[in-house]
Amino acid sequence: MNRRANNASTATNLLQEDYVRTHIASGPTQKKEGRTKRPDQNYLPKSAESPFGGFPKDYVVPSKKLNNKKFQPSLTKQQQVLERTANFKRKQTGTGGMCSSKFKGKSKAKPKKPISGAFKRRRIPKTEFRRFYDRGDLPIAIDHRGTGNQICWKVDIEKLDYHHYLPIFFDGLREKEEPYRFLAVQGSFDLLEKGNTKILPTIPQLIIPIKTALNTRDPEIICTLLKVLQTLVESGEMIGEALVPYYRQILPVFNLFKNKNANQGDSIEYAQRKRINLGDLIEETLQILEENGGEDAFINIKYMIPVYESYVLN
Length: 314
What we know:
Structural class: mainly alpha
Radius of gyration: 31 Å
Helix content: 40-55%
Order of helices and strands: HHEEHHEEHHHHHHHHH
CATH topology of the domain at 127-261 and 269-304: Serine Threonine Protein Phosphatase 5, Tetratricopeptide repeat
Largest sheet: 2 strands, antiparallel
Shape: extended
Number of helices: 13
Distance between the termini: 23 Å
């Protein structure tokens, strides 16, 4: 019951985390003093701003440094030779003609080990949810309330075509901008809460949005998707068993981030309370998949994640 209560406010928690990260944790924002961009794409110092616009394109800014060679007095040949000799002695480096076999030159720098980039964030593809929402094809709007925002549905949710709308909302789970992210996350939970028997036939259409969101390798997006996936499995009968054939598309990223836990030592890790610890959330999701996936669930999970231990059998 606690997990369901937390999932219901997942979208609101994302807004709170953004506010803490931008206004409290990072401190007050400071204005950067430097250069301003003019309409004609010329960059001018603030002290040189003019109401008449920027400098013309053919204008050459005079350099402050003067070429000292033009102002040097002419030297005699003897002085020039002495100056070249002094410069040569100052620049002398190395062994000066040593021919000993014991001499060791400078050691070459060892090449750096290549980085695989397995945990590196990938580019987030554009979502169909944003396109449909900007076009006005989704019957939703934000209902601003004192305790937290909610979605105002303009139609009855139970009368919606889940084959059309549920994949669109799942596709928007990889959004990171507002209001798209809030609407997609909260809308997915609302649809799963009142879907009943309409959810099971849409499982094949949800695999591609789930796989695309996982392949972004973004911890924030993965945590949000895992919470929605847990609600999806528990929202109806046979849904966990229907996901078993698609474990090969879903579980590779689980295997990659399964041990992504922060070792805090004796300090407090608030990610556990907020349910944003990626390693613990993946373990919790695997247990729910095994519990609701039937007899073949553990074998398929073990095939994709060899280090996983059974939650039901143990």
